[in-house]
Write a sequence for this structure.
């Protein structure tokens, strides 16, 4: 249980201004991407496309989109929308509505909050107006016993989007792509169909190829074609009729290199790799399989990049072709350390590292809060050094790496200023003067967060009348400057002025007297609230100068008249510790000068007992769907009492579905009618009265429901993988969707 002393004197209200930039209790955190948009988005005009972007941080960052020239991207009626949750939607559009600056451009997502701003990688967007296209079959015949090749010819304007999904032998025999084929039919990964061991009857079958446009997901089927069996008999030397040329495959994916030769008898294939120093014959191995015209490599690594040669030979001769495999690696960037907290005047160093396999040359640029920093020219660009750190250097630093291929990746780090308690840079001095002139008292302070300055006169708020003006502002360096200006100083304005600079790291204050010549005068003593058990210091608000003596009395008796009381030389009454019964009441102070003139004034002291919360807890062994309740009772403490609840330090939200009701002015019932995992955490009861705020925290633990829930997407054809998605620990509904064999099960918590 912790006690937070709020206010000792209720009447002492902090003077606050809007200039102070930070709040005292916030745990600020710069934005970081939860979902960064992809490097590339291609979509068809009929489907439209969207880019998700979301970020976390405290306060919750807002999401914006930037176009290639750095301007903010907005809605364009019927074409583009920016949703409130940060998603950028590119709507389906008619061919005539195509706009290069919207549909074929680069976007970037920006996440910003009060700490700073970060930008995402570049997203290359490309919309394709889908056009109807035709495919046809081109058949290369062969002699009996040899191999025929059927090609599915796709017009070049759609070739990059279209792939051959299957072949159909009329009426309804489907052939799907595979590495090896079934001995008779083999749809190569490239889409071509091989028909081995041609027989006379093969020329009567009709074949069609079926293609899919990957953006519009529309299927197109060719017209029928058949295989011609050539009359030729005898030996035909191999001729390469198809090769995969240069292919690019992402790291860890499978690659299929392809070279198809026609010849009779069926050629034998040998593969050579030129990836090492010497060309070498490729042997089948754990990752490599040589399947005639196909060389399949599983889980490619950058070392597999390079050129390969395929040689096809038979008794009639040999033919060869060179192919290239390029393994593309993901670009991964990291900035270390991800967070630095540095004191003002110190220096910071961030290092940007690019994953070792990110390949070729790359360019590193640094950004601060979304703006590119000038390259310093000193040292390597992989390191960013910031010296003599000031307040304006706080924020988000990003390393953006661009590869020759044109793609970018980024990583961000946050620079915070370490907390520093306030230091007074300037403070006013004691002055003695005649009534009449204008007086200005000034204090200025530095610290992080920017401190706030408050003023008191003899421990009480400054008089509120037209002669007093208080002004506070924050300089560009984040220092705070505060003035108390008194237009025509009067006798009654004399006393001890105090300025107090405070931030979450600490507080400091300065006091000095303003002496105004004149008769003794005692200002109004506001109602004073003291906290039972603590020390009360009550200063007699005496004006007039010079003053000879100050006294306190209560009920006609001069103080001190108790061991707990003391009257200091400057006229301050100290009571320690305060007791409710003994010390509540009216106190009088009086002051006298040498000439025997005197003044007196009385004030009332109320003693308040701080609240005490009775310990409470939650039951053990609670699980989802159960009910629970607990009561926060305040066993002592004076009214007015306010009792409230926090969950994990934050106020309860309606979304949490927690019911709070007051049983009586001293007890609050917290009940939850249906527990779920979100309810696990710390519940804190906060009880406050004008004397103090106290807290008591109990842990609630809700056990999850252990049945997994999963969603199946049934495969659309046999070569497609099964996809399972499931989560853990929420309410479960099982929906049987047919029989599926589960091979592997991975649990996520
Ligand atoms: C934003 O909302 C849209 C539609 O409501 C949804 O499809 C999209 O996934 C959401 N984006 C994020 C980042 O949650
Ligand atoms: C996309 O463009 C094609 C070809 O011009 C057109 O037929 C189709 O209707 C367009 N889609 C939409 C949603 O307008
Ligand atoms: C108070 O007086 C000082 C010094 O004359 C001046 O700089 C300042 O602006 C004044 N502040 C206000 C709030 O009037
Ligand atoms: C809160 O209590 C009220 C009545 O006491 C009840 O109607 C309501 O359903 C409760 N809400 C929840 C979230 O338990």
């Amino acid at each position: 249980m912790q006690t937070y002393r709020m206010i000792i004197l209720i009447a002492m209200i902090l003077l606050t201004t809007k200039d102070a930039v930070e709040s005292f209790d916030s745990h600020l955190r710069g934005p970081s991407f939860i979902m960064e948009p992809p490097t590339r988005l291609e979509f068809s005009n009929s489907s439209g496309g969207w880019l998700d972007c979301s970020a976390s941080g405290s306060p919750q960052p807002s999401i914006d989109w930037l176009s290639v020239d750095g301007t903010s991207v907005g809605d364009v009626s019927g074409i583009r929308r920016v949703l409130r949750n940060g998603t950028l939607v590119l709507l389906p559009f008619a061919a005539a509505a195509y706009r290069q600056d919207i549909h074929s451009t680069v976007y970037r997502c920006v996440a910003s909050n009060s700490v700073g701003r970060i930008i995402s990688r570049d997203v290359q967007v490309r919309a394709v107006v889908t056009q109807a296209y035709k495919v046809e079959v081109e058949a290369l015949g062969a002699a009996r016993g040899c191999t025929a090749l059927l090609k599915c010819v796709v017009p070049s304007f759609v070739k990059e989007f279209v792939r051959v999904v299957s072949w159909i032998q009329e009426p309804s025999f489907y052939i799907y792509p595979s590495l090896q084929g079934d001995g008779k039919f083999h749809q190569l990964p490239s889409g071509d169909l091989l028909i081995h061991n041609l027989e006379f009857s093969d020329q009567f079958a009709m074949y069609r190829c079926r293609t899919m446009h990957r953006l519009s997901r529309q299927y197109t089927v060719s017209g029928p074609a058949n295989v011609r069996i050539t009359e030729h008999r005898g030996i035909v030397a191999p001729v390469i009729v198809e090769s995969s040329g240069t292919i690019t495959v992402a790291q860890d994916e499978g690659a299929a290199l392809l070279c198809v030769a026609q010849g009779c008898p069926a050629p034998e294939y040998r593969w050579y790799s030129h990836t090492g120093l010497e060309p070498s014959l490729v042997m089948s191995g754990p990752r490599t399989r040589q399947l005639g015209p196909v060389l399949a490599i599983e889980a490619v690594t950058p070392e597999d990049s390079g050129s390969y040669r395929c040689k096809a030979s038979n008794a009639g001769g040999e033919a060869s072709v060179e192919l290239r495999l390029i393994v593309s690696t993901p670009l991964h960037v990291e900035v270390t350390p991800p967070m630095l907290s540095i004191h003002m005047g110190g220096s910071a160093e961030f290092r940007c590292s690019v994953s070792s396999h990110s390949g070729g040359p790359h360019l590193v640029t640094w950004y601060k809060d979304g703006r590119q920093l000038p390259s310093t020219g000193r040292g390597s660009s992989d390191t960013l050094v910031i010296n003599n750190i000031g307040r304006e250097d706080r924020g988000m630093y990003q390393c953006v790496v661009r590869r020759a291929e044109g793609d970018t990746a980024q990583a961000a780090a946050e620079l915070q200023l370490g907390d520093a308690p306030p230091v007074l840079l300037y403070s006013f001095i004691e002055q003695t003067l005649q009534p009449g002139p204008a007086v200005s008292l000034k204090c200025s302070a530095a610290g992080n967060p920017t401190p706030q300055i408050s003023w008191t006169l003899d421990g009480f708020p400054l008089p509120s009348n037209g002669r007093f003006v208080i002004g506070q502002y924050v300089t560009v360096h984040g220092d705070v400057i505060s003035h108390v200006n008194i237009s025509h100083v009067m006798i009654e304005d004399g006393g001890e002025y105090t300025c107090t600079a405070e931030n979450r790291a600490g507080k400091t204050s300065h006091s000095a007297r303003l002496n105004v010549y004149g008769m003794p005068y005692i200002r109004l003593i506001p109602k004073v609230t003291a906290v039972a058990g603590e020390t009360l210091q009550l200063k007699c608000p005496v004006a007039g100068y010079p003053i000879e003596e100050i006294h306190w009395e209560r009920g006609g008796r001069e103080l001190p008249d108790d061991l707990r009381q003391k009257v200091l030389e400057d006229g301050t009454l100290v009571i320690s510790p305060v007791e409710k019964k003994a010390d509540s009441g009216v106190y009088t102070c009086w002051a006298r000068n040498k000439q025997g003139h005197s003044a007196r004034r009385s004030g009332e002291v109320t003693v308040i007992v701080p609240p005490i919360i009775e310990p409470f807890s939650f039951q053990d062994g609670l699980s989802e769907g159960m009910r629970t309740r607990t009561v926060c009772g305040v066993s002592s403490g004076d009214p007015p009492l306010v009792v409230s609840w926090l969950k994990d330090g934050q106020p309860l939200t309606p979304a949490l579905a927690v019911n709070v009701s007051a049983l009586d002015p001293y007890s609050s019932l917290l009940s939850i009618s249906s527990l779920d995992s979100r309810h696990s955490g710390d519940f804190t009861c906060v009880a406050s009265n004008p004397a103090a705020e106290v807290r008591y925290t109990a842990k609630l633990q809700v056990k999850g429901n252990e049945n997994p829930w999963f969603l199946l997407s049934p495969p659309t054809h046999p070569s497609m993988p099964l996809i399972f998605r499931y989560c853990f620990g929420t309410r479960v509904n099982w929906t049987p969707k047919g029989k599926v064999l589960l091979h592997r099960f991975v649990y996520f918590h």
Summary: The two ends are 32 Å apart (CA to CA).
